[in-house]
Amino acid sequence: MTLFDGVYPFYLQQRKHFVFDVSTIIVIIVFLTFAATFLLIIPGIRGRARLYWVFRVLLSLVVGVVIVAVQFTGDWESGWVTANTSYKSFSTVMVKADIGLHVGLAGVNVTLVGNPVNQVNETIDYNEHFAWSFDADYDHSYSEGLEKGLPSPILYVAEKFTTESPCNMHRQYRISGHYASATLWVAFCTWLISNMLFSMPVLIYGGYMVLTTGAFMIFSLLSFSTVRNSLICPIQFGTESLLIDYGGSFWLTLVIGLLCFVVGIAIVVLHYFNPDLLKTFFDLHEVRTEDCQEMTEVYINPQFMSNTQSPPQPSRIISSGM
User: Which residues cross the membrane (predicted)?
Assistant: First the structure.
């Protein structure tokens, strides 16, 4: 961590983007593949049903991809501050930089970007991820950062979330993140069930499952929001404070959850007050009409009909005299 021949320590590492990582990109690609596959079927659908079918598929895929993708994003809470701060430990060198904190369900990302980027003969552009998922050890990641010689602002922010910190922020965020993640996976299961019910089709129960999906998404937000009920340690850089607030993933989950409520309520209301419109939207009228047309087409054997329509001939009984 100290200077070595006047040169700051240099280390090689994998840096993770604070919003998108490999897992998020894989999820998006998988759902885009599903969307492209379904869109290839469009030419085989006739009339107005084509528009309804595209709307149902795209809406369902949007809900599914959001439920899964927000599990891996790192901006459920986010905050930035611009401050003059020391760059390395045991050094009096000061730099002006933008310091960011981005909290996800599985860990935190701390960013440090110089303002300007090139200062003290270095390119100051850092982004470090510290995970607290079940298979990760946050304190070990922090110890590795100390050994690598990370800049002081990153270590200062990351230290607030260690298990030994008196702030107790690690326990608060870790538990709330785990409960929010588990609730989102339940929402994903109910989303799958709703799609199966719509395809059977059992529209009213599919609507109920869409409402359940929205409810579990809102429950995940409530689970994550419990962190706000606890005191948060201040993160000070001189006279400047790093304040964090709800980020893009939080608000996106809220919007999709409310959208599920709207869709579910609309399906339930239409089922009881205007079932014909609901069946038209799900393309059920045309299916029933085609089924009736197929049932009316009956092939008759003419020879069989002529035999059944001709009157039976009386049988003659010839008796022989004795």
Answer: 20-41, 53-72, 179-198, 205-224, 250-273
Q: Count the helices and strands in the chain (H runs, E runs).
A: 10, 7
Do residues 91 and 6 lie in contact, with contact meaning Cβ atoms separated by under 8 Å? no
Report the pLDDT averaged over residues 311-321. 50
Instruction: Determine the Cα–Cα distance for residues 303 and 322; give it in Å rounded to an integer.
Output: 44
Q: State the Cα–Cα distance between residues 222 and 215, nearest whole angstrom.
A: 11
Which one of 164-168, 172-176, 227-231 scores highest in mean pLDDT? 172-176
In angstroms, the CA 217 to CA 39 distance is 27
Contact 253, 70 (CB under 8 A): yes
CB 31, CB 23: distance < 8 Å: no
Could you tell me the two tokens for 11?
């280390």
Distance (Å, whole) CA 155 – CA 165: 13
Output phi, psi for 73, to 5 deg. -75, 165
Domain limits of the chain?
Answer: 77-169
Distance CA 299, CA 301 (A): 7
The closest alpha carbon to 218, from 188, 174, 258, belongs to 258
Pairwise CA distance, residues 155 & 142, whole Å? 8
Whole-prediction pTM: 0.80
pLDDT in tens, 272-295: 999 998 988 887 764 444 444 444
Q: What is the DSSP string of 42-65?
A: GGGS-TTHHHHHHHHHHHHHHHHH
